[in-house]
Specification:
Radius of gyration: 22 Å
Largest sheet: none
Distance between the termini: 43 Å
Order of helices and strands: HHHH
């Protein structure tokens, strides 16, 4: 299946439909990152629990369990599931807050005409999304820099 770019008709406007789309995206990604993080940690814990019991029985199994722990922790550090879970959840909840503030016409939306309300909503939603993207890029640059320093 060929991956084609979205057309203008398929893109939500930068108002309420975009807000709903982004809430769904951040919610899904947060849950996915949470599942991956918790799964790897559970397997790590199980492996770690068995190491002392198997140490006197078979050194190869003990070494294998230690290797599994190292691999899982490396995957967690590489994919940043814990940080993504927290960041995506935080952004999702901020977007939800914006949604209910908008729907209730409270805060910055209070007593404004509809066209102004849409403009404010668009501006605030895009600001939340771009802030999350900037944090993600900053974290990636920090991790890359630290990795390069370790390799020196």
């Amino acid at each position: 299946m060929k991956n084609t770019p979205a057309t203008i008709e398929q893109e939500p406007d930068s108002g309420y439909p975009r807000l709903e789309q982004q809430i769904a995206w951040y919610d899904k990604k947060s849950m996915s990152a949470q599942r991956m993080y918790k799964r790897t940690k559970i397997v790590e814990i199980i492996c770690a629990v068995f190491i002392p019991f198997l140490a006197n029985i078979d050194a190869n199994i003990t070494a294998l369990l230690g290797g599994v722990i190292i691999i899982l922790e490396s995957l967690q550090q590489l994919n940043q599931w814990s940080q993504n879970w927290n960041t995506y959840r935080s952004t999702c909840e901020a977007l939800r807050h914006e949604k209910y503030t908008y729907l209730g016409r409270s805060g910055v939306y209070e007593t404004k005409p509809d066209d102004e309300v849409k403009r404010i909503l668009t501006q605030r939603v895009e600001s939340l999304i771009s802030t999350e993207h900037a944090k993600w890029i900053s974290r990636q640059e920090y991790l890359t820099k630290n990795l390069q320093n370790l390799n020196k």
